[in-house]
Design brief:
By secondary structure, this protein is of the alpha+beta class. The protein contains 17 helices and 39 strands. The chain has three domains: 147 residues, Tetratricopeptide repeat domain (Serine Threonine Protein Phosphatase 5, Tetratricopeptide repeat); 294 residues, TolB, C-terminal domain (Neuraminidase, 6 Propeller), CATH 2.120.10.30; 257 residues, 60s Ribosomal Protein L30, Chain: A. 27% of the residues lie in helices and 28% in strands. The longest helix has 21 residues.
């Protein structure tokens, strides 16, 4: 019924006015005005003028084409199909765009096989460099996927919220109110918005520009939705505004603001009384940088944010990333990996209340149309996301579905869609009602950033076991198996934020000591970066290269090269350390068992050096490989580094008293390292002078270190 109304307002208008009134307008002016409006993207005006022209002078293929394309843009599929179907008939249009929009119309109506043929007709007519050619090829694959995709049995009904809420513009990003039942917030670029019309560069442009988006809220009463109410001028400004998310029990609203939709800032605004946001917002300081193109953040428990970004290190296009706040500082974001992300776009993420079920929109070719809603679940056992799956027909359409969110009670989900049918223009807001409340909304912690799988002991203390990372060369330091171990280490660090992670790289004897040590610290760098990517703060990571100086197995047995021993020595160990030496868990480093025939005592010696008070000599600080052969003159040589510092500290000696280490220091200086200094450690943690003063009562020998 509504479509009939729209047809009479736009196209059917021509049938209701008399021929004489049509003739009162110059046909040439109608065509000129209509074509100019078409070029400027003012589809309703183009459709009105060109339809009037068509009534006076029918049969102009160029006019019929523009009428069909305008009808498609205005979500009038019947009219689009009528006109585009005619102009793409045998012996008529040769314009590839007519065939593209003919295909898009058929695709939007779910006529998969005719749409495939229409896309092929477009491809045959389009130049190799045509900007829509690759999109058409992808859409053929999406049509094939649509024919294979099942319906969603969990969905009872999908409902457009109607013309009281939706407008001819884009109505996007629906947010349910945290504090008020039956209230939603959303953003809309409907006519009359505060920012006026602006072009893609952010400048005012009444001809080619589009209305900026403002933030609105609407209340549903027993009789239906009340008209939306715009936010005040403190939030709705001459720029684009989009409400992003609520945190802190609805007291804080995060919003995007920018002169374009492609770059701006994220602000936080505190609610006043009655859930009304009145204060001047403050910039959000965190891992999400909207100015650089990060998009659509979703905040979890006020300490975790997931978002879409094209930043380097992703799978391609927009990817889903996540970051967690540690002690007030946001850690570097991590990419959720290939199970979630694809070479196409993934955007508008949402994590359900169970803390492990992710929903997001993606336009990969396995989707039905453009952006479809997909889901993936995080496993605490494997520390992996499950391969993403589509929510299927019913919720998804041949158009774009995005900003999917499930209500707190799990009974329904809200989202925006620009599907060609059942739509008032642009993106509309929809509700999807579930047959049963989805269990994903059962409250839980945010699984991705919580504990690793632990075994509870008799004292209810977590028992955590990590295996070493084995490698043969730099290429497999970050193998799939090793990355799984790194993820477990990350999870441990997140569960126990007071521990540091010590990364120690051991090597076999492959060449001169100076090169083995340097190769080891570069491998430690690789593991350290992976830990940071996982969300561990760099100041909690200690890197060490032990080189070949602390073997767990002999590299030679009875004068013969021992390949098995070399394999065991090429390993990386990650373990938690604290200055007190008391860990908040029972930790086991699950090293390989070595037979008595080839066992070596080096690893045990290094472990002992990490207990209690220990001194080493810092020979020099370098950023490049130290080529001095004098390194071979000293025992217990290793390299230390702080993650991301790029500085390598060459250390020698390991002594329990300041007197013994000072003797080694003299030898180091005599060997040419004139800036050598003594460094104290307690339980593997390097001490500052202030920390040493605080521990002198427990370790009296530190008095000499402090005086020195």
């Amino acid at each position: 019924m509504r479509k009939v109304k729209v047809n009479y307002l736009i196209i059917g208008l021509c049938l209701l006015i008399t021929a004489s009134s049509l003739c009162a307008q110059k046909p040439s002016q109608l065509k000129t005005d209509g074509e100019k409006a078409f070029l400027d993207g003012r589809w309703a005006e183009a459709l009105d003028n060109l339809s009037k022209y068509q009534q006076i002078k029918p049969g102009d293929l160029g006019v019929l084409s523009k009428i069909g394309q305008s009808a498609y843009q205005l979500h009038l599929p019947d009219q689009a199909k009528q006109f585009l179907g005619y102009v793409t008939g045998p012996g008529r249009s040769t314009d590839p765009m007519d065939f593209f929009y003919w295909a898009r119309t058929l695709h939007g109506l779910g006529e998969w096989e005719p749409a495939i043929e229409a896309y092929k007709q477009f491809i045959r007519r389009a130049d190799n460099g045509h900007p829509f050619r690759n999109n058409a090829k992808d859409n053929i694959l999406r049509c094939v996927s649509a024919m294979r995709t099942a319906g969603n049995d969990a969905i009872a009904l999908v409902e457009n919220l109607g013309e009281t809420i939706n407008s001819p513009g884009d109505d996007i990003a629906p947010l349910p109110s945290v504090n008020h039942n039956n209230r939603i917030y959303f953003s809309s670029n409907r006519a009359g918005s505060t920012g006026g019309k602006r072009n893609d560069d952010g400048y005012e442009d009444n001809d080619r520009g589009h209305w900026c988006s403002d933030i609105y809220y609407a209340q549903r009463k027993t009789t239906g939705w009340e008209p939306p109410v715009p936010f005040s001028s403190l939030q709705n400004t001459p720029r684009y505004e989009i409400a992003l998310d609520f945190t802190d029990d609805g007291k804080v609203l995060h919003l995007f603001r920018g002169f374009t939709l492609f770059g701006g800032e994220i602000f936080t605004d505190t609610a006043g009384l009655k859930d009304e946001y009145r204060s001047s917002p403050n910039p959000f300081i965190g891992a999400v940088d909207a100015f650089q193109g990060d998009q659509y953040p979703f905040y979890v428990n006020d300490s975790v944010v997931i978002f879409a970004s094209r930043r380097e290190g992703g799978q391609g296009g927009l990817d889903i990333w996540a970051s967690r706040r540690f002690n007030g500082t946001w850690a570097p974001a991590i990419n959720l990996g290939p199970e979630v992300n694809s070479p196409y776009d993934e955007t508008t993420p949402f994590i359900a209340s169970d803390g492990k079920t992710l929903y997001f929109s993606t336009n990969r070719t396995e989707s039905i149309g453009g952006l479809d809603v997909w889901t993936s679940t995080f496993s605490l056992e494997t520390r992996q996301w499950s391969p993403a799956v589509t929510l299927g027909h019913g919720l998804n359409s041949p158009g774009d579905e995005a900003w999917f969110r499930i209500a707190d009670d799990g009974s329904l989900a809200s989202f925006s869609s620009n599907r060609i049918s059942d739509n008032y223009g642009g993106y509309d807001i929809y509700f999807a009602y579930f047959k049963e409340a989805t269990p994903a909304q059962e409250r839980a912690a945010f699984a991705m950033f919580e504990q690793v799988k632990t075994v509870e002991g008799t004292n209810n203390i977590a028992e955590i076991t990590l295996m070493p990372l084995f490698y043969t060369s730099d290429r497999d330091v970050l193998s799939d198996d090793n990355n799984a171990i790194i993820r477990s280490a990350v999870a441990m660090a997140r569960q126990f934020p007071d521990v540091k992670l010590q990364v120690t790289v051991n090597t076999d004897e492959s060449g001169p000591l100076k090169f083995d040590l340097y190769a080891g610290i570069k491998r430690a760098d690789m593991v350290g970066k992976a830990l940071v990517t996982g969300g561990v703060s760099p100041d909690r990571i200690v890197l060490r290269s032990a080189g070949p100086n602390y073997p767990i197995a002999r590299n030679f047995v009875n004068g013969t090269d021992n390949a098995a021993g070399r394999t065991l020595n090429r390993r990386v160990e990650i373990e938690p350390i604290t200055m007190s030496g008391e860990l908040p868990m029972k930790f086991k480093l699950d090293r390989p068992v070595v037979s008595d025939l080839m066992a070596a005592a080096g690893t045990q010696r290094l472990d002992e050096q990490g207990q209690g008070l220990m001194y080493r000599v810092e020979m020099t600080l370098a950023r490049q490989v130290l080529t001095s052969d004098a390194l071979g003159l000293f025992s217990d040589v290793l390299i230390e580094s702080n993650q991301s510092s790029g500085e390598y500290r060459y250390m020698a000696g390991a002594e329990r008293t300041i007197t013994a280490i000072n003797a080694i220091k003299k030898d180091v200086i005599a060997a040419g390292f004139t800036s050598a200094t003594v460094v104290a450690y307690v339980n593997g943690t390097r001490l500052t002078r202030a920390e040493a003063v605080g521990l002198v009562k427990k370790y009296p020998d530190l008095a000499g270190y402090i005086r020195g």
